[in-house]
Amino acid sequence: QKEVEQNSGPLSVPEGAIASLNCTYSDRGSQSFFWYRQYSGKSPELIMFIYSNGDKEDGRFTAQLNKASQYVSLLIRDSQPSDSATYLCAVNIMETSYDKVIFGPGTSLSVIP
Amino acid sequence: DAGITQSPRHKVTETGTPVTLRCHQTENHRYMYWYRQDPGHGLRLIHYSYGVKDTDKGEVSDGYSVSRSKTEDFLLTLESATSSQTSVYFCAIGSHLNSPLHFGNGTRLTVT
What we know:
The structure holds two protein chains of two kinds. Chain A is mainly beta. Chain A is built from no helices and eleven strands. In chain A, the strands form two sheets. In chain A, strands 2, 4, 5, 9, 10 and 11 form a six-stranded mixed beta sheet that branches. Chain A has a five-stranded antiparallel beta sheet with strand order 1-3-8-7-6, with no helix packed on it. By secondary structure, chain B is an all-beta fold. Chain B is 0% helix and 58% strand. Chain B has strands spanning 4-7, 10-13, 19-25, 31-38, 42-51, 54-57, 64-70, 73-78, 87-94, 102-103, 107-111. In chain B, the strands form two sheets. In chain B, strands 2, 4, 5, 6, 9, 10 and 11 form a seven-stranded mixed beta sheet that branches. In chain B, strands 1-3-8-7 form a four-stranded antiparallel beta sheet, with no helix packed on it. In chain B, a hairpin with a 2-residue loop joins strand 5 and strand 6 (54-57). The model of chain B has no long low-confidence stretch (mean pLDDT 94).
C-alpha cells in the first residue's frame, strides 16, 4: 500500500520563528505534491503545491521537494499564532489509468505568542 | 471559494440503516473524491470519480458505494451503517490530473 508519512507532532514554535514540517512518500512515480492547512472543525484549504524538484516560495511559505529522497517539506517563516493548525501533506499516486490523491496523517502546529 | 456543497452537514443515524451523502459542485470539474477523516488517521480516500459513471475504490472502500450520474453530483452511500463509520466525510473536486483539490465543508455522521 502506497503511503504518505508525516511527523505527527504536535510541533510548538515561538511566534516569529521558522516552523518546519516534513513529509515522506513511498510511490516513486508521484508527480504532484500538496500542502493543506486545516483549522479545527474546518475543511482543508490549499497552501502550496509543487511539481518540480527544488524550492517554491509563496509569501511566508516555502515548499521543498526532493524526489530522489522522496521527501517534501513546508517551511513557515515568521510564524504567527494564526498559523496554528494541522498541516496535511498530500501526494498523487497512479495505481490504474487515473491518479488519486492520498494524504498523510497531518502535523499539528502550535505557534506560541 | 470553489462551488462545492455537501449535504447534509450533520446526520445521526442508527446502526443498520442506509445513508446517502451528497456532494454537489458548480465548477464542472471532472474529478471528485470522497474522504473520511478520523482522529489519528488523517484523510483517507473512500472512492473517487474521474468522470460521469467512472468511479474507482480508494483505501477504505469496504461498506461504501458511490454513484455519479451527472458531472455535478457525486453520491456516497453506506448500505448498512455501522458505528465504525462514524466520522467526518469530506468531498473534494479537482479540475484535471495532478491539480490541487478543493474541499466541501464536510458532513459529520454519527452512527448510534
